[in-house]
Each structure stands twice: as structure tokens, then as C-alpha cells.
Specification:
The protein is an all-alpha fold. The chain is about 65% helix and about 0% strand. The relative contact order is 0.22.
């Protein structure tokens, strides 16, 4: 089960404050792009947009990202 979007770990993920070992290539690509975007614009609106994008991706691809979810959220 995915943590709620308001969980601080989503913000840490999209801002690159915490590093994780991600196995899924599509997830690595998405996070690379999103982290870069969040670094370029640190406004709360942009970070929230980045969180929503990553959250939606994880929701739609739950089976593919299952191991990555365990790595990120325990």
C-alpha cells in the first residue's frame, strides 16, 4: 500500500534529499527528471506537482515498482 501523498518521504524523494537504490529503469528515469525539476524550482507548488506525478506513476505501476516501494518506504 502506498503512503498518502502528504507523507514527508514523497517530498524527500522528489527533492533528492534522500537517496535510494532504485532497481526499475523507468522509475530511475522518472525520478531523475523530477528531481532535476524540483531542484530548478523549489516552490511548494512545483514540489507538490512533482510529488503528484511520482505518486500517480507508482499508483499506476504498483506491480513493477513493488521492490522500489519497499526500498523507499520500508
Amino acid at each position: 500500500m502506498l503512503p498518502d501523498k502528504s507523507d514527508q518521504r514523497w517530498r524527500e524523494l522528489v527533492t533528492g534529499k534522500k537517496k535510494f537504490t532504485i532497481k526499475s529503469l523507468p522509475t530511475k528515469i522518472l525520478l531523475g527528471r523530477v528531481v532535476l525539476r524540483a531542484e530548478m524550482d523549489t516552490s511548494p507548488e512545483n514540489v507538490n506537482k512533482c510529488v503528484s506525478e511520482v505518486y500517480d506513476y507508482f499508483t499506476k505501476n504498483i506491480k513493477v515498482v513493488e521492490n522500489d516501494l519497499k526500498q523507499i518506504f520500508g
